[in-house]
Each structure stands twice: as structure tokens, then as C-alpha cells.
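We emphasize that the prediction below concerns an isolated chain of 330 residues; any contacts that depend on oligomerization or on bound cofactors are therefore not represented. The input was used exactly as deposited, without trimming of termini.
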Amino acid sequence: MSLQARIAFEYLLKRSLRNICTAKSVGPIGKDKLLSIIISVSRKLPEISDLNRKLNIEWSGKFALDGTFFKIGGKTFVLLICSDFESLDLAGYRIAKLENYQSWAKFLIDIYAELTKSEIRKFFVTDGKKGLHQALTEIFPEIPTQLCTTHKQRRVSQIMPQVRGDGYDKLFSHLAHKSIRAPMPQISESYLDVLLYIRKSEEFETYPKPRQEKLRKTIGALRFQKSKLHTRYILDEIDDPTTNHLEGINSFLQERLYLIRGFKKQENAELIIKLLLYYYRFHRFTSSSFKERNGKSPIELNNIQNTELLTKIYKGKMAYSWIRNLLSGT
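Result of the prediction step, given as a C-alpha cell string:
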């Protein structure tokens, strides 16, 4: 069991089947055998929702929702994720064929009991997908939603490039980003008003058509679901309305989902994703921009009621001890 845990951990750590060390008594193992061991380990690990219930995690009531796309056998799938906004830990996930209202509704219904088991219900941070917002309105009508500023800024950057754009692109993009990140609603509106003034000016008519279109789309992006983008001005609890992409679960997965390239069986690819999610939850931050996170894993940053179980899972001197302990039924 220790050898299996070690193989799985080295695969996750090195992001490759190469250079995985095994015991001398075992000798070298082929790639196919190594991969079968790794898949077997993931299959034996408890479901993430079951572990959450056993640990009896008290979530912060602040949740981030997002979808990450990947391919299996040439077909595109989406990994729907709900993470705790404070600990960055995983509250739940679902793999779907499409990111639409039906997928989000099924996912939110699945995790409803977990998210509402306490009276702590503060807000969701999301991107601007209409299907997601429709599902949230129907299933969690009493919980406010804040648009993720990072997503909104990325959308503006897609329309109006700052790096390779011309002087006008950089000016319009700068004003749009200032509007998105403004500390007060009045300041946010002021930057948008400048863009609207340019849009209505006589000079606008002299612009080339591509520049006119980019400015229209940028203004449209700022206006789209603006009330949800401004939720943070009403809720004092939202200090930084992003989903912590620079060090959160989405960034982590996007750097590693290439590990399922070449998989033809959906079941096997999903087992690798499950293992990646476990690895994310138990890896300890070392260079977080939030100093209080360093030296702790996302799962440790939660308010956990069953701390005894978590101590047992982490018991051991090896970096892969948590995998071994979970496999042993701890």
C-alpha cells in the first residue's frame, strides 16, 4: 500500500510517469503497469463528498463557482467546481459535457445539503455565465452573487489587448480595468462614463470600424450584469472579489489537466482528475501571497469539526502518507 501511495504521489508531483522510483526489491515497472496502479489508487480513495462529510467541515459560507474545460478522446468536457472562498478548499465538483443551466442546476442540487448544513450563507463569486446565474437564482435565491473581477478583466483583455494593442487600445483597456477594480461605485461609474463619452463623441465616428467595435464590446462587457459586479460595494465581507486564480484550484488544475491527454476511457480520465483534486487539497502552500496560508494545505485552512480524523490522515513522515492513510481506510 505504501508503494502504491508513493507511485501515485510521484506521478502527481513530477507530472509524468517517467522517473517514478520503486523499491529495489520490486525492480523497474513499465508505464502501463504504473498507470494501472495510479488509476487503482484513485478508485480506492473515498469520494471527495464522503470525506467532506466525515471531516464535518464548516464552510465559510463564501463560495466560488467556476468551470474548467478539458478533452477526453477528442471530446470536450467541463469540470464544474465549487470551492470555499477563504480556504480555497474544494466543497464539491461535477464533470459534465456542457456548461449550461442544466449542468449547473444538477451540480448545485447535488451539493445543496453540504453548502447549507450551517447557517453561514454569505455569497457566491462566479463568472458571468447566464445558465449559472439562472440556476443560482432558483436554487439559492437568498444568497447574493458577486461577479469575479478576474473573469471580467480577462474578458476586457480579450476585446482590448493592452500589450499588443495600439495607444487607443491601451487607453480604453486602462479605463475599463480601472472601472472593474474601483474601490467605490461612484469611481467605477466615472471610468465607465468616460468610455461612454468617447463612444458618443464626434471623434468616435472617425475611428476605424474595428476600433469602434472593440469600444462597443468593452462598454457592453462593463454593463453586462453590472449590478452583480457591484455586489461587493454592498457587502463589506468581500475584500477582493476574485476566485484567487493566481493560487487557487482553477490555476492549479489548468497547469496539470494535460495529464489526461491521450486517455480514451472517460472513467480513467475522471479518476486522474479525482486524484488531482485530492492532491490539490492536501498540498501545502509555500509561496502564497497570503502569508497565513503558507505551511498549510487548503483542507487544513477549513474550520474542521473532526480534527482527529484529519490528524490521522496526515500521520506519517512521508509526503505521500496522506494517500497511504486514506487507502487504509483512516
